[in-house]
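User: Can you help me understand a structure? I only have the sequence.
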Amino acid sequence: MRALRGLTVFTFAGLALACTGSGQEDSALDSEEQEAPPARLLLVMDNSSSMADEAGGLAALADQLMVEGVTVGITTTSVEDPGNSPPGLAGALVGDPTTDAEEFQRQLLCEATCWQSSSVPSEPAYTCGDPWEQVTLQLLDCACGFEAWEGSCGSGDEEHLEAALLGACRSVEPMPEACLEQSPLDGSEAGSGVLVAGQNNLVVVVSDEGDGSRRLAQGEDDPAVYLSLYEDLGLDLTFAVLGPNYDPSAGTLECNSGGATTWGSQRLREVSEVTGGLYAPIGVTGGSGCEQGDLQGFVAEVVALF
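Assistant: Let's start by predicting it. Here is the structure, written out as tokens:
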């Protein structure tokens, strides 16, 4: 995991958490542009300590992601409990599936992100319900309750593909036997997921790490095992990944401050390509060195997949 960087400022006034309405009038996309067939989205969020910037940026784009007809559930890349029992373990949702942008923000910021109080800026003048331009201690307290946002840091062993599998397994009744193998599940979790057979099911992975899922040997870059398991669930999954900036043709990892492996990154690229989804870099080289990738562009491409 990389050290938590200084939080990027996101100019955003569409939603005012906790006290005001959804701010739909200020949405970047009007209702006519947002019309899409019913869809289900499982967000697999990396909840290690390096992902605060991306979580804040994604929360700021909630109105653009939560288009009409889309129901979202959030889980994390943590499969094994690191000892503090954070939300979103083993494909479990951190909250109820939602169609509401403000509730999506709350779940993402309060339950699925690792915040370190010493690295989160303070804005004493902030009042609950005000529009916000950056994630601050006061915003988190308003959205989550006083210091209730602490304790959500997950494992540094990110298992993106396994977490996606277990999240999908929780959506199927009865749960297939393969879901119980090499996993913490016992079958009683069936029916607790967000995905629905016959609907447009999208899995969105956001992480600066390569995949380290347990059903593949370390160094193995072919995710065929997981692709077969996904297909057997009958959910017709499409993957969209915001992940390490890996160029398989050159074998290089650009802006790899997260310490991702080439083989773990290739797994994520392969799954997104085979399922007809998309892959975008989480970090890119800019004029001043490595910068955050185009998160807004990624969200727009995700919405286009609906």
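Now, to help you interpret it: The beta strands are 39-45, 70-76, 200-206, 237-243, 245-247, 252-254, 278-281, 283-286, 289-292. The chain has one domain: 30-100+156-305. Let me know which part you'd like to focus on.
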